[in-house]
Amino acid sequence: MDFTSPEFWLAVGQIIMIDILLGGDNAVVIALACRKLPPAQRKLGIMWGTAGAVLLRVILIMFALTLLKVPFLKVVGAVLLLWIGIKLLMPEDEDEHANIASSDKLWGAVKTVIVADLVMSVDNVIAIAGAAEGAGGDHQLPLVVFGLLVSIPIIVWGSQIVLGLMTRFPFIVTLGAMLLGWIAGTMLVTDPGVLPYMPLDPASTEARPEVTDLVRYGAGVIGALLVLAVGKIIAARQKPVDFPIQ
Which residues cross the membrane (predicted)? Predict the structure, then answer.
């Protein structure tokens, strides 16, 4: 890994931002799953549950990085990321975690954390794989692992601070949603099935064709603005309207 590369730190920053925004639910799941454990076992439940969930996520991202090389799969991933970004801007569902069961046995709680994280990880995996694939060069998997390891303490121990900041400063969530739109746009134009129809960088090779920076960054900007516009429109329509009493 080239720690001096701006692209490396850009990708790490994107992965941490994505994991905080989309992984914020992990802290809630962990708390709910471990709430019936004896106090002495809660730390173990949190530690082993988090470790298992992260390991599972790394394995899923390994498959995702491979699958993103299949023609037109990035297009599907880009559309999914656009929807995830739009969902971030919608009002939250307060009953979203109502079906998370707790256990008074350590390994039962750990299993609950891992299974729940697996179900909830699809959006996180695709977003992180897209960020690493777009800026990670030839070190995508180490980059993913590094980004996840950096974000673990932020999610587990700093989740309340992060959630408090998001509540106080809603623009953080908006920026995160736009980041997903940016990644979706750059993913779409670099799909192997779409590349032949895109303006290619003259410096790229036939074995590894790349679009021009103008196309890539332009697609990223369009994706970010699309998420912002559609998300705000849908959120505004979902707000209850108070009619004055005649």
Answer: 12-34, 46-65, 143-165, 172-194, 214-235
From the number of C-beta atoms within 10 Å of its C-beta (0-12, 13-18, 19+), residue 218 rates as middle
pTM of the model: 0.69
pLDDT, tens digit, for every residue of 71-106? 888 888 889 889 888 887 886 654 444 444 555 677
Listed as own residue / partner, the contacts of 87-95 with beta carbons closer than 8 Å and 24 or more positions apart are 87/231, 88/21, 88/173, 88/176, 88/177, 88/180, 88/231, 89/173, 89/174, 89/177, 89/227, 89/228, 89/231, 89/232, 89/234, 89/235, 90/231, 90/234, 90/235, 90/238, 91/235, 91/238, 91/239
The answer to whether 61 and 118 are in contact (CB under 8 A) is: no
Residue for token pair 């699958």: 67
Residues 181, 82: contact at Cβ < 8 Å? yes
The pair of three-digit structure tokens given for residue 40, joined into one six-digit string: 């002495």
- Taking the C-alpha atoms of residue 21 and residue 153, their distance in angstroms, rounded to an integer, is 14
